[in-house]
Amino acid sequence: MFNLHYRLERKTIGFLLAIIGVASIGGAVEIIPLFTIHQTVEDAPGMRVYTPLEIAGRNIYIREGCYACHS
Questions:
Q1: pTM above the 0.70 mark?
Q2: Residue 41: CA atoms inside 13 Å, Cβ hemisphere, count?
Q3: Is 15 exposed, middle or buried (0-12, 13-18, 19+ CB in 10 A)?
Q4: Which of 3, 18, 43, 65 has the maximum number of C-beta atoms within 10 A of its C-beta?
Q5: Contact 27/21 with Cβ under 8 angstroms?
Q6: DSSP string over 14-31
Q7: Is 42 exposed, middle or buried (0-12, 13-18, 19+ CB in 10 A)?
């Protein structure tokens, strides 16, 4: 086990390729589901966009910490 790690660290290009490979797999796992989000999320009945006044009130509600007791 330690021998493999030591050899990987001694070969800079191999270590760099391993890092790129692992980071690419992790990135793909996070990004690929975003392409199918429209198939998995449904609009709720009666859903509408908040008005600017409602957004301002919501921001105050969150800023003041009201969600801690009133949720």
A1: no
A2: 6
A3: middle
A4: 18
A5: no
A6: HHHHHHHHHHHHHHHHHH
A7: exposed
pLDDT digits (tens, 9 = 90+) for 23-67: 999 999 999 988 888 887 788 888 889 999 999 999 999 999 988
Q: Categorize the per-residue pLDDT at 2 as very low, low, confident or very high, splitting at 50, 70 and 90.
A: low
Which tokens belong to 11?
A: 């070969």
Paired tokens of 61: 């509600």
Which sign does the torsion angle of CA 6, 11, 14, 15 carry?
positive
φ and ψ at residue 44, rounded to 5 degrees: -75, 145
